[in-house]
Design brief:
Elements (H helix, E strand, L loop, with lengths): L2 E5 L5 E4 L3 E5 L17 E9 L4 E7 L3 E8 L1 E6 L4 E5 L2 E6 L4 E7 L6 E8 L9 E6 L10 E5 L7 E2 L5 E7 L4 E5 L5 E9 L2 E3 L2 E3 L4 E5 L3 E6 L3 E9 L3
Parallel strand pairs: 13-14
Antiparallel strand pairs: 1-20, 2-3, 3-4, 4-11, 5-10, 6-9, 6-11, 7-8, 7-10, 9-12, 13-15, 15-22, 16-21, 17-20, 17-22, 18-19, 18-21
Length: about 240
């Protein structure tokens, strides 16, 4: 029988530093909730707002798959491998920290904020050679369908990571209903709603609500209003 864990938008950790306002679905930095450490291999889901011209200076990461998904504005990236660039809405960024990497992230613009999701996935291989990739996808390709943005396979649509995980983004009109079938037995699925209202099996979710589902092969999702959401399928045994 399917198991569920529901995280309402207002139950998330709230870290407001003025220039940075971050909502933490799982324990992160000064926010610690022993019941909200991770969902399987999904370790961090931060919903970040960064004021104009501000950002994170060079800092280290190790043995984590780090995914950035811009929602509004322009996010400037640079790292110790010599990569630099800007990502914006429609782009996806992946960084395999592996054996160790330094990077920085800044709001490129001084006159408007940048909003993005920062997601960490526990990898299935430790101390790999660090790597960085970014890709531009067409948001129209997620209209009323699941648009794959992350997978374990370098030849698949989107980007890949060192984990048996699949991410999809969706932008649905009201009334659209589809079934999501898990790719791998033993995986769970975490749905995070960006806008609107959806019904997942019998659970209604609104903007910034999250729901984890496991011990099932698939779920039914219905758009109660025009909605955008992110699906993250990850192994539960980590």
């Amino acid at each position: 029988m399917a198991q569920y864990t529901y995280h309402s938008a207002d139950s998330r950790g709230d870290a407001n530093h003025g220039w940075l306002h971050s909502k933490h679905t799982f324990s992160f930095a000064s926010y610690h909730n022993p019941e909200r450490i991770h969902f399987g291999a999904l370790r961090v889901l931060n919903d970040d707002f960064v004021a104009g011209g501000k950002g994170f200076g060079m800092h280290p990461h190790q043995n984590m798959e780090i995914i950035s998904i811009p929602l509004e504005g322009d996010l400037k990236h640079s790292d110790s491998m010599g990569n630099s660039g800007v990502i914006q809405h429609g782009d996806i960024q992946v960084m395999s920290a592996g054996a160790g990497i330094y990077h920085s992230e800044y709001n490129k613009n001084h006159d408007k904020p940048v909003k993005f999701l920062q997601i960490w996935v526990i990898p299935n291989k430790m101390n790999v050679e660090p790597r960085y990739e970014q890709i531009t996808l067409d948001p129209k390709d997620r209209k009323n369908v699941f648009q794959q943005v992350i997978s374990p396979n370098p030849t698949d649509e989107g980007l890949w990571i060192h984990q048996n995980a699949w991410f999809n983004m969706a932008d649905w009109e009201e009334g659209v209903e589809k079934e999501y079938t898990f790719h791998s037995k033993g995986n769970g699925l975490y749905i995070f709603v960006l806008k609107g209202d959806v019904l997942v099996d019998a659970q209604k979710l609104g903007a910034r609500d999250g729901l984890g589902i496991w011990e099932t092969d698939g779920i039914k999702i219905k758009a109660e209003t025009p909605t955008e959401f992110l699906l993250m399928e990850v192994p539960m045994d980590v």
